[in-house]
Write a structure and sequence with these properties.
By secondary structure, this protein is an alpha/beta fold. The chain folds into 3 domains: 91 residues, Chorismate Mutase Domain, subunit A, CATH 1.20.59.10; 147 residues, Rossmann fold (3-Layer(aba) Sandwich); 109 residues, 6-phosphogluconate dehydrogenase C-terminal fold (Orthogonal Bundle), CATH 1.10.3660. 60% of the residues lie in helices and 10% in strands. It has 13 helices and 7 strands. A 7-stranded mixed sheet has the order 2-1-3-4-5-6-7, with helices on both faces. The radius of gyration is 25 Å and the shape is globular.
Length: 363
């Protein structure tokens, strides 16, 4: 094939790509119109049955056109996700819940603090930021400011949050004080002090990171501290989203989080530690990777790219971490022993027990 023929084919490909983008733009306009209708009719943002119908139709059409159905599924799953993000943001932006309301985000320059600043601003809250960054010119010093806010969100490191909550118990703001710590053990006493001082206080735990753009299939934990009305008002912040709201007792939180966060974090950090200390080049392992390795590597890369100081706090400050980490160590040692002693049936039993646990999870 000569160069002129190749250039011509590539030019045709460029034109096809432009047509695809044009169709995507046209599709997005239709998605926006559907979102407006959903707002008017108060219909739910997500319709799983409709999504399945779209994917099934696309895969069937792909087969007819001799296109890999799985590739078509992956492409349109991403398109649907993007469409849902737009519709969710549309719902948030038109909720009006923050109209004539104000909020102060303490730690508002941190990653989750910034997420909340944007989230509240999108709901028409007037949002101020209090942060330790000396270069932030619009900083509000919560210790000296008039705390006449409807919401005060504490989004600081866990140890710092404990001190902030203690400070607020003396300052006695009139609005709802909301902490969002990943661990509640160090916050239990200052939260109780805050409640006892007559303040409105709610403890939440968003089970997602600051890069999250779509809250469908994400969870927010709400912990009532004797003030159900404030919990209900806090829940209203998330009503325009598709996040699932979970009520939890304060005493249950850290025990469960020791598995949900603590165990999963350590597993992935340990995995990356073994790789980084193996002496094997990362690119070599990537070339030889398997499906399982790729999946594990993807999750582990996300974990180790997070704030190591926060992840240390999640391990160190949770009273239940030690038992979970010991259980992990025991499990690893048991598997090592079973393999070294050629106990195949014992290995099979371990995996079958895990399989039974997963079956119980799925009912």
């Amino acid at each position: 094939m000569d160069n002129s023929k190749l250039t011509s084919l590539r030019h045709n490909l460029d034109k096809i790509d432009e047509q695809i983008i044009g169709l995507l733009a046209e599709r997005q306009m239709n998605v926006d119109a559907i979102g407006s209708v959903k707002l008017t009719t108060k219909s739910p943002t997500r319709d799983y049955q409709r999504e399945k119908q779209v994917i099934d139709n696309i895969m069937n059409f792909a087969k007819e056109k001799n296109v890999d159905p799985q590739i078509a599924k992956e492409i349109f799953s991403l398109i649907i996700k993007t469409s849902l993000e737009k519709q969710e943001n549309q719902k948030i932006n038109t909720s009006g819940y923050g109209s004539h309301k104000s909020a102060l985000v303490i730690g508002g320059l941190g990653k989750m603090g910034q997420w909340f600043v944007q989230f509240l601003s999108n709901q028409d809250f007037k949002v101020d930021i209090s942060d330790v960054n000396p270069d932030f010119k619009d900083n509000i010093d919560y210790k000296t400011a008039e705390l006449d806010y409807d919401f005060i969100i504490v989004s600081a490191p866990i140890a710092a949050s404990a001190q902030i909550l203690q400070d607020l118990s003396h300052l006695k703001p009139q609005g709802i004080v909301m902490d969002m710590g990943s661990i509640k053990s160090p916050l239990k006493l200052p939260l109780m002090q805050l409640a006892d001082s007559g303040c409105k206080v709610v403890s939440i735990h968003p089970m997602f990171g600051p890069n999250t753009r779509l809250l469908s299939n994400k969870h927010v934990i709400f912990i009532e501290l004797g003030d159900k009305e404030s919990v209900d008002k806090t829940k209203e912040l998330f009503l325009p989203t598709m996040a699932e709201q979970i009520d939890m007792q304060l005493e249950d939180h850290d025990r469960l989080v020791a598995y949900i966060l603590g165990l999963s974090h350590v597993l992935n950090i340990a995995f990356m530690t073994v790789l980084s200390e193996s002496g094997e080049a990362a690119e070599t392992l990537a070339q030889l990777s398997s499906t399982t390795f790729d999946s594990q590597l993807s999750v582990s890369e996300n974990v180790v790219s997070e704030n190591p100081h926060l992840y240390f706090e999640i391990q160190k400050l949770n009273n239940y971490s030690k038992s979970t980490l010991n259980a992990l160590g025991d499990a690893v040692q048991r598997i090592i022993s079973v393999v070294e002693n050629n106990q195949e049936q014992a290995f099979v039993n371990i995996m079958q027990k895990a399989q039974s646990y997963m079956l119980s999870r799925h009912g």
